[in-house]
């Protein structure tokens, strides 16, 4: 059905864009590109200056987004929002403290042991490759592993030990609280609790700056793209970590707790679970190839069960993005905001996608309005091949504005 609204009721920016010639559009895009780069550079500089404050507010907002689900559920049971926020906050704090006291020290201890034993594992991997190379030679196959052995011994060994050492130092640095870190943690907790209580008021004030007809769609899209996305990722990562730790301990995989937690934490980011599985399989393969194949098999099975069975049934798909654009979004987020940028890259990309879809829908509605003013297409929904050219739209818009 053709919309009855006139082109005047549409966005002036869209009408102006439709009135431009193709050459004018190319010139406008060429002029806008440097401004976009300049704005990105300015935003990055501002983010670097206020990084501590912005990280606290961003983390608090993400946690409040996630905890808003149980708070809303308790409200539905008749509990006041303030009481529900206090209860959910206390349960979340107790859960984090339990994990920090039980799993974190064990994981750090295993990480220290892994860094110490990495040279032995590399020597074991080199010996296994020598044996495999000898078997291939006896079989008469024209395959030589000499190059791989040299690379492992000369480069990969030192690089991987260096990376493991830096990761361990970063983990220890995060685990040891200083006064500044303690203040940031307290500010995050306080901000999260405040947002749980008064988040709706803060959000209404923020979206009040947007045009009235975009406030409700923008609020709904943001909630779906951030809240549901992070809930889905946390559920997937938790299920993967719990399942893999249990299986690794049953199979007596060395450093099973550390490897299971590593894959689970990396699964918080799209494609991170697969990268974690490949890394853990490689490390275990240095020690025992047969056990590495078992680790790879069970990890892939658990990953498929979680990603295709558990998470979609809980929340469904909330991204709607092509995997290529997800990958591009992650790389862009890493370049702009580091680890925090990686975390928020995908839901931000979803938000941008929805905004572009809305602009495209508005443009199509304008084209339908222009066609409805032409007696030739009156009362008929036009086919795509009957869409007017830019010159026709420009002429019709000019007539309507006249």
Q: Can you give keywords for this protein?
A:
402 residues; mainly alpha; globular
Layout of strands and helices, then pairs:
Elements: H1 12-19, H2 22-49, H3 51-76, H4 81-138, H5 146-175, H6 179-207, H7 212-251, H8 256-266, H9 272-287, H10 289-314, H11 323-372, H12 390-401
Helix pairs in contact: 3-4, 3-6, 4-5, 4-6, 4-9, 7-8, 7-10, 7-11, 8-9, 9-10
What does this structure look like?
The chain has 402 residues and is mainly alpha-helical. The protein contains twelve helices and no strands. α7 runs antiparallel to α8 (256-266). It is globular, with a radius of gyration of 28 Å. Residues 1-10 and 382-394 have low confidence and may be disordered.
**Roughly how many Å apart are the termini?**
26 Å
Total number of helices: 12
The residue fraction in helices comes out at over 70%
Uncertain segments: 1-10, 382-394
Which whole number gives the mean pLDDT? 75
Short synopsis of the structure:
The protein has about 400 residues and is an all-alpha fold. It contains twelve helices and no strands. The chain is globular, with a radius of gyration of 28 Å.
């Amino acid at each position: 059905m053709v919309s009855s609204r006139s082109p005047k009721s549409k966005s002036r920016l869209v009408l102006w864009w439709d009135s431009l010639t193709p050459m004018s559009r190319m010139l406008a895009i060429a002029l806008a590109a440097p401004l976009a780069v300049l704005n990105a550079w300015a935003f990055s500089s501002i983010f670097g200056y206020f990084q501590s404050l912005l990280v606290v507010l961003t983390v608090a907002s993400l946690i409040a987004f996630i905890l808003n689900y149980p708070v809303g559920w308790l409200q539905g049971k008749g509990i006041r929002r303030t009481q529900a926020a206090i209860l959910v906050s206390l349960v979340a704090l107790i859960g984090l403290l339990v994990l920090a006291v039980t799993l974190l020290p064990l994981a750090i201890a295993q990480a220290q042991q892994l860094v110490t034993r990495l040279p032995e594992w590399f020597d074991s991997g080199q010996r296994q490759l020598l044996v495999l190379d000898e078997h291939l030679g006896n079989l008469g196959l024209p395959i030589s592993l000499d190059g791989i052995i040299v690379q492992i011994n000369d480069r990969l060994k030192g690089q991987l030990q260096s990376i493991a050492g830096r990761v361990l130092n970063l983990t220890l640095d995060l685990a040891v609280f200083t006064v500044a870190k303690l203040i940031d943690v307290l500010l995050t907790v306080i901000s999260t609790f405040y947002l749980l209580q008064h988040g709706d008021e803060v959000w209404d004030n923020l979206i009040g700056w947007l045009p009235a007809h975009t406030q409700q769609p923008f609020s709904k899209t943001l909630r779906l793209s951030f809240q549901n996305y992070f809930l889905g990722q946390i559920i997937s990562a938790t299920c993967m970590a719990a399942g893999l730790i249990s299986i690794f301990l049953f199979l007596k995989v060395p450093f099973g707790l550390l490897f299971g937690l590593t894959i689970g934490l990396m699964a918080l980011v799209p494609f991170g679970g697969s990268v974690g599985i490949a890394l853990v399989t490689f490390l275990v393969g240095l020690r025992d190839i047969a056990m590495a194949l078992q680790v790879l098999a069970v990890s892939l099975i658990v990953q498929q069960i979680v990603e295709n069975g558990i998470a979609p049934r809980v929340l469904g798909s909330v991204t709607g993005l092509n995997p290529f654009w997800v990958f591009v979004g992650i790389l862009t987020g890493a370049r702009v905001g580091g680890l925090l940028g990686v975390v928020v890259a995908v839901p931000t990309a979803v938000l941008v996608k929805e905004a572009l879809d809305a602009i495209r829908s508005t443009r199509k509605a304008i084209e339908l309005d222009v066609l409805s003013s032409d007696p030739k297409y009156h009362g008929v929904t036009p086919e795509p091949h009957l869409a007017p050219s830019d010159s026709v739209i420009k002429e019709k818009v000019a007539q309507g504005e006249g």
